């Protein structure tokens, strides 16, 4: 029996969806010569590290604190078990958005206008992947991101940062508009363009320009269908914020030797996780090293091993 959406946690703890389901297309249309094509939601420690390892292999920056947002979501695509694509959707929040300084005036203007933004960054498909597979995975990752932003979170805009040579695809196919440009860096890094998709206006424009066929932007991202409802439910059911334990061991005081979180980022993170400071202070205040009783639902209380700049005021700051 063919399973399109993996909903048995015991059998599929990695939270995967097959490519045909992610696209909302027929199985034959999304088949890659009988190969196993899936997209996983990276919600656990091992999956997050697999995602960051793939980005590192592709020359992209790895983890940052913005991914610790409770509504952030990362996807890792696989073809026959090999990673072949990745995407992350980062909501605007007190953590800010991981964008260059040149784009910050544009972000500030959009916030003043009341726009509820989410940043799609990164969106990575290796150059060596064949064109058909690359196109299918790109469409699937975009569909999952747009459904998450529009249907789960009620976002008004999706932002994408890319080099000018890639901007044409987003502008001509999906009707992204250019909101800001960053000049080439002195070190030779390519220029960057910030593109924005207005999720309030695009449905009507997509329908007018492309119709509502299964492979049109309207058909993929907007048209209601039982299949789209199942994908949205899959996204809703499996997206989950990091536990307090994961926040500490992955971002605040990483166990893999990465630098600890800086003071400002920690206090912004606290605004998104009520009770985080108290969770840490319980253990910090334990003088004899005895393991304190865990609070219900918080997971194991981690030990802070390294001197961190925010430890002294962890219990007393608002």
- What are the segments in which pLDDT stays under 50 over at least 5 consecutive residues? 1-12, 286-318
The main pleated sheet reads as: 8 strands, mixed
* The CATH fourth-level homologous superfamily of the largest domain: Gcn5-related N-acetyltransferase (GNAT)
Order of strands, main sheet, comes to 1-2-3-4-5-6-8-7
By DSSP (H or I, 4+ residues per run), the number of helices equals: 11
CA-based shape: globular
| Overall average pLDDT | 81
The CATH topology name of the largest domain reads: Aminopeptidase
Structural account:
With 318 residues, the protein is α+β, with helices and mostly antiparallel strands. The chain folds into 2 domains: 16-238, Aminopeptidase (3-Layer(aba) Sandwich), CATH 3.40.630; 244-313, no CATH class. Helices cover 36% and strands 16% of the residues. The chain contains 11 helices and 8 strands. An 8-stranded mixed sheet has the order 1-2-3-4-5-6-8-7, sandwiched between helices. The longest helix is centred in the middle third of the chain and has 22 residues, at 131-152. Residues 1-12 and 286-318 have low confidence and may be disordered.
